[in-house]
Every structure is written in structure tokens, then in C-alpha cells.
Amino acid sequence: MLEENKTPLLGMTLDELKKAAQQMGMPAYIGSQLADWIYRHKVDSIEEMTNISKKNLAKLKERFTLGRMVHTEARQSVDGTVKYLFPTLDGQRVESVFIPESDRGTLCVSSQVGCRMGCRFCMTGRQGFQGNLTATDILNQIYSLPERERLTNVVFMGQGEPLDNLDAVLKATQLLMADYGLAWSPKRITVSTVGTRKNLLRFLKESDCHLAISLHNPFPDQRLAMIPAEKSFSLTEFIPLLKQRDWSHQRRLSFEYIVFEGMNDTETHAKELVRLLAPIECRVNLIRFHHIPDTPYQDTSKRKMIWLRDYLTRHGVTTTIRASRGEDIYAACGMLTTAKTKKQNTVLV
Ligand code: SF4
Fold first, then answer.
1. CA 190, CA 178: separation in Å to the nearest integer?
2. Largest Cα–Cα distance in the chain?
3. Matching CATH topology for 3-65 and 73-339?
4. What is the pLDDT along the chain (349 residues), one digit of tens a residue?
5. Shortest-distance Cα residue to atom 4 of ligand 1
6. In angstroms, rounded to a whole number, what is the distance separating the alpha carbons of residues 118 and 34?
């Protein structure tokens, strides 16, 4: 919970920071100084903003807080992957997973608490929807990450459907990319979606970040059995829409494909994937299924994964097998929060 109903500065745009300064009777340039301290210097407290007078800092602290919320739990895998639970402004908790590699550090961030999409193979889907994250909550997963200086990429593939909370996701990515913010290239950010009718076009129009579509099956009826959102926005509609766009420039389009034994790993599925995707400039990421309790879905064999990758690649669809990380720490999205459903006190600094 926010301490004494104070407003967090983290998550505000430059204009909002300037307005906040003016509301407190200070000149607008204090807002630029705030942005500099928050986003460039990544201070841990308002007191560290040493070029703002003590009098002005005291005034700011009457109404604002930095908005940094440290994690309440961390679990490290034998492979170096770390899963964190971060508090949210309204006292709930969300997961983030840091995945270190030799040449990069990727953070998988959450955009909602729970999710309304109800995908059958997903632990978060089973939790139902508990609320949208704010831009502060989203940015805090990056800002308060112990490994934040090693971060090279952010993927919106944690809990929640990012396009179902698009305003906050766009604001968070705007702050990640702004010159006064973290000044990241959009090439470092990927937003993943099952496809929502209302916001897919808006995302394509308003963001330059990479797009990843959770496909998981090329046949609409079979996909519907896994992903209820197929009913309101079918792949028969969004694939032609994606086909019409030019993907050869900056923005990358990928399709995520969790491979389940006997359900989407046959030659029939491979042929249909080629028919759908070969004409599009895209890549397919094959993902191993992290088993969740009480589900008919089973992980496929390594041999089948390799066969599917080679089949798709041979037929003109660039395909990779995503390395499976952090299985020993419940890295499948939603596993840790499901194990820890009680709220804890938020630690705000
Ligand atoms: S897979 Fe993603 S969209 Fe589907 S229920 Fe889980 S979090 Fe939501």
C-alpha cells in the first residue's frame, strides 16, 4: 500500500513531474531534475536528490514518495535464473523473472495481477483477474531489480495480458524509451499477447516495440480449446492483419509456440504453421512446457522439438528452440504467486 496516500514519482512522465513540482509551488525545471534523479541516477530515496534544496525536498515529501518497492521474495535457480515477487501499489504481488545469459540479461515483467484470458495451460490464467498494474508497478520491477545494471532486454511475458492493460504498458515503455527516461531502444522491448481485438491495432500504431503473438496452435478450433481469447479474436482474423504489414524493418514479429505432446506437435500442425506463417517476415520460438498441477497438457520430447524446428526452418519459417530456464524455481508464470496468495506489507522507500 502507498504510505500515507502519497503519490509515487516513479512512473511519471517529464510533463507530470513538472506539473507535480509546480503544484508544490516550485519552478517547472525542478521536474526535469526529478526525472534526472529518478530515471538516470536511479536513486533509492528522495533525500539523494542533492541538487534540490532541502526545503523543496521536504515539500515534495509531504505529498510524494519515490515509489520504489523492494521485492518480498527471491528464488534463484541452479541455472542462474531468479524469480522475484514484487509488491504493487495496492498491496498485491506480482512475479518477475531475471534470465542471465553470457551476452544479455532479460527481465520477464508482469503487466497485471492475475489475468482474465484463462489460457488452459497457464497457472496465472487459473488465478483469475485481480487487477491492472500501474506504470509505477511495471517500472518498479525494472527499477528495483537487484540486477538492473545487467539488464539488456525486457519482455512483457510475465503475468497478465499486456494488451488488456495497454495504457499502463504504453506509459511504462514510453518511460523506458524516453531520452529523459532510461533511453532504451524499442528493439530491447518485446510485448507479448494472445491477441486482443481492441488493442492489437492500437499497439501497432502507437508503439515501435517488438511484438510476440502467443499462437500455440495453428488450427482455430484447437487453439480455442487452449486459449479462450481465440473466440473473440481468431487467428483467422489477426494473421491476415499481420500479413498486410511490413515487418522487414525495425520491429520484429515473433510467434510463441509452447509444444505439447500430441496436441500441437504433429506433421499436420507443422504443415499448417508453414501455410500460415511462411509468407510473413517472422520467427517462431518453440517453448518447452513447464508442467503445472492438474492439467492434461504434457511436455513434448526433445526429439519432437528438434524435428518441429527443423521442419519449419526447412520450409521457410525461421524457428528457434527457446532454452528452458528456471524450472526448479517455479519459473512458469503464476506458479510462485499461486503458492503465496496472502498479501504482505509493501516496503516503500
Ligand atoms: S498465458 Fe498469458 S494471456 Fe494466457 S492466461 Fe496466462 S498470463 Fe494470461
1. 16
2. 70
3. no
4. 556 689 999 999 999 999 999 999 999 999 999 999 999 999 999 999 999 999 999 999 999 999 999 999 999 999 999 999 999 999 999 999 999 999 999 999 999 999 999 999 998 988 899 999 999 999 999 999 999 999 999 999 999 999 999 999 999 999 999 999 999 999 999 999 999 998 999 999 999 999 999 999 999 999 999 999 999 999 999 999 999 988 877 789 999 999 999 999 999 999 999 999 999 999 999 999 988 888 889 999 999 999 999 999 999 999 999 987 777 775 555 555 555 543 333 333 3
5. 119
6. 40
In angstroms, the CA 99 to CA 145 distance is 12
265: Cβ below 6 Å to ligand 1?
no
Fold of 73-339: TIM Barrel (3.20.20)
- Domain limits of the chain? 3-65, 73-339
What kind of architecture, by CATH, is found in domain 3-65?
A: Orthogonal Bundle (1.10)
Number of neighbours of residue 314 by Cβ within 10 angstroms: 11
Q: What is the pTM of this model?
A: 0.93
Separation of CA 289 and ligand 1 centre (Å): 14
Query: CB of 123 closer than 6 A to ligand 1?
Result: no
